[in-house]
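Retro notes (design track)

What went well: tokenization of the new backbones is finally stable.
What didn't: we kept losing track of which sequence belonged to which structure.
Fix going forward: every design gets posted as structure first, then sequence, in one message. First example under the new rule, 209 residues:
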């Protein structure tokens, strides 16, 4: 499957992660760290439903996704709901010259497992570049302990054809700790649209070392 557009050829309602309301773990963490005047960046924003939820709460929201189909949908959704948001089609594993004003919190929900280990350093460098000094970065991606999606092991192919890499807490810690101060890292269970999933939750802050 072409990683550039995993939405092509699938009806939106069949997409296993498509949910209109963010999971509580995302809402609670974001709302406890960032007042509703903050600028949020949704990394791998997909169809834009989570970004729309936060925009409706008063946050300024920007979103990035590698898929043009997803970005078009997010823009349409914001148009229908009469919300303001900026969406960019961008591969976060490649160098870019995008500059966004004062991102106070960047989050990614179920995105990093789409990125194989050899591309993650560039991805994390890009996130660090986009985030303001003192800003928070929340990453929630599938854990290697999950047994409900794509079989077992680290490299998995899912029923819809996506090829994923499931991480351990230690790997995420090693990846993130040279760029960010890790505030909390743990295994969590996500509600999931069909079945629950085990995931690695990592909350970080961009601070001078
Ligand atoms: C499982 S979906 C999650 C979408 C959204 N965060 C949600 O929870 O509904 C993963 C998303 O990451 C995007 N993605 C994967 N690799 C990416 C990359 N290198 N740069 C930007 N976005 C990427 C995909 O296009 C997809 O929208």
């Amino acid at each position: 499957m072409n990683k550039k557009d995993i939405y092509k050829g699938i009806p939106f309602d069949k997409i296993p992660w498509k949910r209109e309301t963010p999971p509580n773990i995302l809402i609670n963490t974001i709302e406890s760290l960032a007042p509703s005047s903050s600028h949020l960046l949704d990394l791998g924003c997909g169809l834009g439903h989570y970004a729309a939820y936060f925009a409706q709460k008063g946050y300024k929201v920007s979103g990035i996704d590698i898929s043009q189909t997803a970005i078009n949908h997010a823009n349409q959704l914001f148009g229908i709901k009469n919300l303001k948001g900026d969406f960019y089609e961008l591969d976060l594993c490649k160098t870019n010259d995008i500059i966004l004003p004062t991102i106070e919190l960047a989050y990614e929900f179920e995105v990093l497992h789409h990125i194989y280990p050899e591309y993650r350093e560039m991805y994390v460098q890009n996130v660090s570049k986009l985030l303001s000094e003192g800003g928070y970065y929340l990453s929630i991606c599938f854990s290697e302990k999950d047994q409900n999606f794509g079989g077992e092991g680290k490299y998995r192919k899912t029923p819809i054809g996506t090829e994923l890499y499931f991480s351990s807490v230690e790997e995420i810690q090693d990846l993130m700790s040279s760029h960010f101060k890790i505030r909390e890292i743990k295994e969590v269970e996500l509600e999931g649209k069909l079945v629950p999933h085990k995931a690695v939750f990592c909350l970080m802050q961009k601070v001078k070392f």
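Added context from the reviewer: Residues 80 and 128 are 32 Å apart (CA to CA).
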